[in-house]
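Data card: per-record layout.
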Amino acid sequence: MHQYDTVVAALNDLKKRGFTLDFNIAFDKLTCMQNDTCLNPAQFEITEVHRFEGDTNPSDEEVVYAVEAKEGDLKGVIHSAFGTYADSVSTEMLRKLSMNTNQ
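The structure for this 103-residue chain is written out next.
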């Protein structure tokens, strides 16, 4: 597994490795504005998780997820500060994200 010192380094390397789409969490699915794609939790796998913790400021904490669709050739990333998705996602999506974060 790759290890990165910064979020920017992780995003840049993942992009070089084909994770070119930017996914956003929309309650019960992932959406991508670049190609109008929507994926529900059963349609994608989280293949890598990179967690970054700020040295002094808790607001600097962030997670980068590498995401691959189970069908098709869609690869991208989700990056989000810890806890920002907690109130705005379905139970199924929260379970999938949390399960992978704790690996």
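Known properties of this structure: The mean pLDDT is 83. Residues 32 and 72 are 14 Å apart (CA to CA).

See the next section for split statistics.
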